[in-house]
Amino acid sequence: MASNKNQIPRIPGVNTLSIHHGESFAKETGTVMPPIFTSSTFEHGNQQGFDYTRSGNPNFRILESVLASIENCKYATVFGSGVSAITAIASSLKSGDVVLCEENLYGCTVRLFEQVFKKFGVKTAWVDFTNPSALDEIKRKNPAMVWLESPTNPLLKVIDLKEICKRTSSLNIPVVVDNTFSTALIQLPLELGATLSLTSTTKYINGHSDALGGAVCTNDHKWEDRLKFAQKALGLQPSPFDCWLITRGVKTLSLRIKQQVSSAQALADQIADHPSVNWVRYPFRLDHPQKDIALRQMKSGGAIITASLKGDQIQTYSFCKSLKYFTMAESLGGIESLVCHPATMTHASIDPEIKKKLGINESLVRLSIGCEDLDDLSIDLHEAMNKLL
Ligand SMILES: *Cc1c(COP(=O)(O)O)cnc(C)c1O
Question: Residue 316: which of 290, 284, 350, 340 has the closest Cα?
Answer without folding.
Answer: 340
